[in-house]
Design a protein that fits this description.
Number of domains of chain B: 1
Oligomer: heterodimer
Helix content of chain A: over 70%
CATH architecture of chain B: Orthogonal Bundle
Shape of chain A: globular
Largest sheet of chain A: 2 strands, antiparallel
CATH architecture of chain A: Orthogonal Bundle
Mean pLDDT of chain B: 84
CATH topology of chain B: MetI-like fold
Number of helices of chain A: 15
Low-confidence stretches of chain B: none
Distance between the termini of chain A: 43 Å
CATH topology of chain A: MetI-like fold
Shape of chain B: globular
Number of strands of chain A: 2
Number of strands of chain B: 0
Radius of gyration of chain B: 22 Å
Structural class of chain A: mainly alpha
Helix content of chain B: over 70%
CATH superfamily of chain A: MetI-like
Largest interface: A-B, 88 and 90 residues
Chain lengths: ~300, ~270
């Protein structure tokens, strides 16, 4: 009896109403995201047969994924590319976020943010392809530089290698990096900056000791929001990377769609996710002292 | 001038961001089959050719069906989630929301392969329907982000006033809340439509023999002779998405102004 009345109480409570209301969305995420993710983890421990998956538990896929030289070099390269992209993107993005937050009139801020986000939403494939045109042998950069007379022969190191992948990805993820930093900068109480300068600090020192530490949560967020998805990018390495610019997503696609080896593909995918998660956690731990802030 | 050097940098940065979009129409209207400089002359023949490609028309139809369905379903799911999280406190909220928002950072290829494995395992044939399933998953976090700010700026006393005046829960939702968050809903529909229309990887893995527009575009990159037509198509798509996004932004701002909130800018 007591149990039942407790249940009735719970059913009428705020918590139950909220959970019930969230349930369609939550159920969808569980069925279409959590369960499939669980399945590829399971698959990564199974054996690949000729036309079917054999239900034999094995570590062979992981051993293959981690010891095969080709897979290992692709994995290391992907990690390197992601880190470079993240670094370039965040460093280039910070001044923009700072400019929009501190130097643009409040009424024009949303217009600037809108201008920054538009390219992000438009035709990803075609944008990547156009970088090929910009960086190519007869491309914009080469014909421009030759026209001005800085170089005599087209530069070849800017297309079909890791450099072009980094440039293209840095372009694609720019808005992702700007917005979190902007939000963090907007939250800074401007009187703190005045206080810093009233106490005799120069503008630069105030920036380093007040603005930058307070903006750190935004910087950390943008690092993660750029780093995690870039490692799994398929289109950019495929189109502008050339043979030496292939990344882990190309490898996963190859295993799944071309070689039909789901267990090995799953093991590579799970390993990549594991590495990304680990690197992100280490990064979070290293920057933890900036994230606490005055009010947690 | 305020922030002189910053402004120069900001304009240079915008040029970097817009470089591909500026170059795109140059080649779409260029009278040459090779995509390279120098340009050779003005022509609209790629647009004419685009109108005549039958495969493109099929891909466009598939994409539109997928984008409309994904927009409607993900916005509906987004309304439930945004309403639940902004109005109620309940156990395991952070964990459940973390899972729902996960596709925002999860590499799309992971979403694509994991869905592929499960669907094939269940014996589901790949089709437009399976692409919709995947697109709803990646659109929902964006709809929640947009709708949460719409629901957040709602004044709860309006709702209480409706209850006090004798309205039931559902009719309060319909008469008071829905009109106030309507701009947010329209904005969310447009954004998720744009995301779905542009999404490639999930469609590439899950479309089977029914290509979407991006899958068609990707397949055409292999043939240098069909690239100019793709440039023309790209120009049309870019104009279309800029139009949709501008309308979405207009409704998003109006929604925030309507419910008396402060504009913090941006969709994300």
């Amino acid at each position: 009896m007591i149990k039942r009345s407790r249940w009735t109480k719970f059913r009428e409570s705020e918590g139950a109403t909220g959970l019930l209301m969230l349930s369609p969305t939550a159920l969808y995420a569980i069925l279409m995201l959590a369960a499939p993710l669980g399945t590829i983890i399971l698959y990564s421990f199974l054996t690949d047969g000729y036309l079917e998956i054999i239900r034999d538990f094995t570590m062979a896929n992981y051993i293959e994924a981690w010891t095969n030289d080709l897979y290992r070099s692709v994995m290391i390269r992907s990690l390197g590319v992601s880190m470079s992209v993240t670094f370039v993107t965040v460093v280039l993005a910070f001044p923009i976020a700072y400019f929009v937050s501190f130097h643009v009139e409040p009424s024009k801020k949303s217009l600037w943010l809108f201008l920054i986000t538009i390219p992000f939403w438009t035709s990803y494939l075609i944008r990547v392809f156009l970088w090929k045109v910009i960086l190519g042998y007869n491309g914009v950069v080469n014909s421009g530089l030759m026209g001005v007379g800085i170089i005599d022969e087209p530069l070849t190191f800017i297309l079909y290698n890791v450099n072009s992948v980094v440039i293209t990805l840095a372009h694609a993820y720019a808005p992702f990096a700007i917005l979190p930093i902007f939000v963090a900068l907007e939250k800074i109480d401007r009187s703190l900056l005045e206080a810093g300068q009233d106490l005799g600090e120069s503008k630069f020192v105030t920036f380093c000791r007040v603005t930058l530490p307070l903006a750190m949560p935004g910087v950390v967020a943008s690092v993660l929001i750029v780093f995690i998805p870039t490692i799994g990018d398929y289109v950019t390495p495929q189109l502008v990377g050339g043979p030496e610019g292939r990344m882990v997503a190309n490898l996963i696609q190859l295993q799944y769609l071309k070689l039909d080896n789901y267990p090995l593909g799953s093991a590579i995918a799970v390993s990549a996710m594991g590495i990304v998660t680990l690197v992100s956690l280490v990064f979070l731990a290293l920057t933890r002292r900036y994230l606490k802030g005055p009010k947690g | 001038m305020k922030g002189g050097w910053f402004k120069v940098y900001a304009l240079a940065y915008l040029l970097f961001l817009y470089a591909p979009i500026i170059i795109l129409p140059m080649f779409a209207f260029n009278d040459a089959t090779v995509i390279a400089f120098p340009l050779s002359g003005f022509s609209t023949r790629w647009f004419d050719e685009m109108m005549q490609a039958p495969a493109l028309r099929i891909a466009l139809k598939n994409s539109l069906i997928i984008a409309v369905s994904a927009a409607v379903i993900s916005t509906t799911l987004g309304i439930f989630a945004a309403r639940a999280t902004t109005r109620y406190r309940f156990p395991a909220k952070a964990g459940i929301m973390g899972l729902i928002m996960l596709p925002l950072v999860l590499p799309e290829i992971i979403v694509a392969v994991s869905l592929l494995v499960v669907l094939l395992g269940l014996g589901v044939n790949l089709s437009i329907f399976t692409v919709i399933l995947g697109h709803v998953l990646i659109c929902t976090p964006f709809t929640i982000a947009i709708l949460s700010s719409a629901f957040q700026s709602l004044d709860q006393s309006l709702e209480e006033a409706a209850y006090d005046l004798g309205e039931s829960g559902p009719s309060t939702f319909r008469l008071i809340i829905l009109p106030l968050v309507m701009p947010g809903i329209i904005s969310s529909l447009l954004i998720s439509f744009t995301i779905s229309l542009d999404e490639f990887i999930i469609a590439f893995f899950l479309a089977g023999t029914e290509p979407t527009l991006p899958v068609y575009i990707f397949s055409q990159f292999r043939f240098p002779s069909s690239v100019p037509v793709i440039m023309a198509l790209g120009t049309v798509l870019v104009c279309l998405s800029i139009l949709l996004l501008t309308i979405a932004e207009y409704f998003r701002r109006r929604g925030i102004a309507k419910s008396g909130g402060k504009d913090t800018g941006g969709f994300l």
